[in-house]
Each structure stands twice: as structure tokens, then as C-alpha cells.
């Protein structure tokens, strides 16, 4: 499947200065930006910056960033699911995962995450894809936000809804291990019926076992 990436951008005003939200950006462009030291949700900032540059270089990889001048203060990633996860078992070339979204504490509460997702969905090529995201409460910054699990889940759900992602049921053991974890997905307008059926089979593997 051909992976077209149409660049989009928008400006977002915040009390801490205007942010430029853009993407999908190239690996070269991404490597040239500074990476904020408070982007620590998944791994140390330098390692995460390197990982994002690698994702941006993949045919299906998409990175949308929020930057203050030359410094990245937030990002969202899209790529094929991890080969070890059930979502890759269908070997679907039109299923991609919103793998990570992060915004530094200073810019939270100003719809940065929502705008990152909105800029990602401005690309018409996204209508060819089935986009999933798996939300696990252990990745959430409950301490930093002061929110409880259910409040944070509500914030995440609202943010994903703004990009057209909706809650989907699944029997995936990791997602089922806590009621706040969830699977969300957006089925593009041009996704065929076979792909939707394959996705349903991936969501509920246990009911096909006799």
C-alpha cells in the first residue's frame, strides 16, 4: 500500500506563547529540532527524540509535533503496531496505531493534544486507514495532573474523540486487565469491509476458539 503523507500545519495560541503544530514531518527536519527535556513519559528525552526520528523515516511512520520556535514540546506518533501485539497478527497494511502522545506539563490544558490529533487527521490519506490506539492507565501522568484514573481516562477519551476515534470493545488480556484501559479506533471512509471484519476478529480472538 502506498503511504502518502501530506504536510499540514496550524498555529495555536497559549499563555506561554504560540505553538506551531505541524506534520507529518520528515526525519531530517525532526532531527534538526530541539527536544524538550520534560518529554519523559516513555523514555529519556534524547532516546525518545532518536526513536521519533526513526519512526518518521518509516514508510508508514507519521510524526506530528507541537513546537515553540525551535523546540518540540509535544508530539503524536502513528506507525504499524508492534509485531508482538495482536493488532499486527492480521498483517494489515492499512492498520496503523496512534502509538504515543505526549505534551510537556507547561502546555497541558490548552488543547495541544487535541490539535496534534486534528492536524494528523487533516491529511486525506488517513481515510485509507484503520487507526487504533490502546490506552493503558500505567502510561498516564496521574501524579503530575492530580487526576484520578477515571478523570484521566475521560480527558484521553475526549481528546481521541476530537480526531474521530471511538471506543471499541475487545477481549485483549492487557486491555481487559483494568477497566480504565481501552481500545479506540477510527475507521477511514475508504477502508473496505474485509479490513473491518479482520479488525473485528483481532478485537475478539477468544470467541473464535472452540
Automatic annotation (TrEMBL):
UniProt KW Transferase keyword: yes
Alphabetized InterPro entries for the sequence: AcuA (IPR024699), Acyl_CoA_acyltransferase (IPR016181), GNAT_dom (IPR000182)
Q: Which GO terms describe its molecular function?
A: acetoin dehydrogenase (NAD+) activity; acyltransferase activity, transferring groups other than amino-acyl groups
Its domain of life reads Bacteria
Q: Which UniProt keywords apply?
A: Acyltransferase, Transferase
Q: Name the EC number(s).
A: 2.3.1.-
Q: Which CDD domains match?
A: NAT_SF
- Domain N-acetyltransferase: residue ranges: 35-121
- Gene Ontology BP term (one): acetoin catabolic process
Q: What is this protein called?
A: Acetoin utilization protein AcuA
Query: Which species is this UniProt entry from?
Result: Pseudoneobacillus rhizosphaerae
Amino acid at each position: 500500500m502506498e503511504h502518502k503523507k501530506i504536510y499540514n500545519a496550524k498555529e495555536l495560541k497559549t499563555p506561554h506563547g504560540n505553538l506551531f503544530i505541524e506534520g507529518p514531518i520528515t526525519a531530517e527536519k525532526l532531527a534538526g529540532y530541539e527536544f524538550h527535556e520534560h518529554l519523559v513519559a516513555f523514555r529519556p528525552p534524547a532516546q525518545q527524540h532518536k526513536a521519533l526520528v526513526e519512526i518518521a523515516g518509516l514508510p508508514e511512520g507519521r510524526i506530528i509535533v507541537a513546537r515553540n520556535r525551535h523546540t518540540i514540546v509535544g508530539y503524536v506518533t502513528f506507525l504499524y503496531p508492534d509485531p508482538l501485539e495482536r493488532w499486527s497478527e492480521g498483517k494489515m497494511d492499512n492498520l496503523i496505531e496512534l502509538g504515543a502522545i505526549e505534551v510537556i506539563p507547561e502546555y497541558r490544558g490548552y488543547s495541544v493534544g487535541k490539535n496534534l490529533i486534528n492536524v494528523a487527521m487533516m491529511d486525506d490519506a488517513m481515510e485509507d486507514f484503520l487507526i487504533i490506539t490502546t490506552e493503558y492507565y500505567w502510561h498516564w501522568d496521574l501524579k503530575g495532573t492530580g487526576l484520578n484514573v477515571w478523570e484521566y481516562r475521560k480527558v484521553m477519551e475526549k481528546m481521541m474523540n476530537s480526531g474521530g476515534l471511538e471506543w471499541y470493545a475487545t477481549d485483549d488480556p492487557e486491555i481487559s486487565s483494568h477497566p480504565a484501559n481501552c481500545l479506540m479506533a477510527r475507521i477511514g471512509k475508504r477502508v473496505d469491509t474485509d479490513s473491518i471484519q479482520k479488525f473485528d476478529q483481532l478485537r475478539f480472538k477468544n470467541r473464535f476458539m472452540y
